[in-house]
Structures are given as structure tokens and as C-alpha cells.
């Protein structure tokens, strides 16, 4: 019965975009964390597991952060690369489809897979690795937001300050 449901889910999700390719010139990692890839779900719906591309399969994994984005190397499943520009938010949760742990035990990355917004969960093997991971992911996400802001010259800032006085 479960296999039948999974096959139907695969058919319903046939339009989910392919996973992005890992860049050939991926920069050196700034952080590497061992853990478990939990799952990928539709953003905001922690029960709507994405089955295609083996995104719904929990696996041992290694997550590395690079200047270009996040790479999740999953044992027995395709790698997941989240480009820096696609990473939209980093949060923690107690659970996602198929995995529930203590409060804030999972690191959840919200990102765009094509035009589809998804959440990917990761659980670190070592509790001490979670805080540096969250910090590095948050910096990566916020750097992208800052990179998207147009540069404002010092003269423009001075003029805006003068207007507000």
C-alpha cells in the first residue's frame, strides 16, 4: 500500500524541476558538517515530502558550505546543490516528514528549486556543529540579499540624510 502511494506521489510530482548541477568550479568549503539529510518538502508544509529525485529519502550526508552555495552529499542518492541565490531562509524545527526530534533539532533551509519553493532538512551528528552551521547558512543567505541591493554612493547617503534632518 505504501509503495502504491509513493508511486502515485512520483507521478503527481513529475513537474518538479531537476536538481541543479554542482558547479564545476565550486570554491573551497568554509564549513563541512556530517549528519543526516532528512527530507525535502514543499515550503511551509512539513508533511508534503518531495519524492522525485530521491529528495524524500532520508540518508547519511555531509553538508558543505561554499561561496557559491550549499552542497549536500547524500550516501546512495544524488547530491543536492543549493545555489546561494536560491537560498531564501534558514530556520530550525522539531521535525519534518518522517523525522521528529527535540525542539529546534533540525536545520531547515528554504530555497527555490526552479520556481518551486522547498524546505530541506538536515540534522547534524554533533550537537555542537549545529550553531556554526546555522550561522554560516544565515550569513550565506543574507550575503545574497545584500548582493542584490544596488550600491548607493556616499553622496546619495549624505543627500538622504540631509533630507531627513
Largest sheet, order of strands side by side? 4-3-2-1-9-8-5
CATH fold annotation: PH-domain like
CATH class, anyone? Mainly Beta
| Inertia-based shape | globular
Rg computed from alpha carbons, rounded to a whole number of angstroms: 18 Å
Can you tell me the CATH superfamily? Pleckstrin-homology domain (PH domain)/Phosphotyrosine-binding domain (PTB)
Helix content: 10-25%
CATH architecture: Roll
Which stretches are low in confidence, meaning pLDDT under 50 for 5 or more residues running? Answer: 144-165
> What's the β-strand tally?
9
What does this structure look like?
The protein has 165 residues and is an alpha+beta fold. It has one domain (29-146): Pleckstrin-homology domain (PH domain)/Phosphotyrosine-binding domain (PTB) (PH-domain like). It is 24% helix and 35% strand. The protein has 3 helices and 9 strands, in the order αβββββββββαα. The strands form 2 sheets. Strands 4-3-2-1-9-8-5 form a 7-stranded antiparallel sheet, covered by helices on one side. A two-stranded antiparallel sheet has the order 6-7. The longest helix is centred in the last third of the chain and has 18 residues, at 130-147. The chain starts with a helix and ends with a helix. Residues 144-165 have low confidence and may be disordered. Residues 16-137 form the PH domain. Pfam families: bPH_11. It comes from Arthrobacter alpinus. This is PH domain-containing protein. InterPro entries: PH_bac.
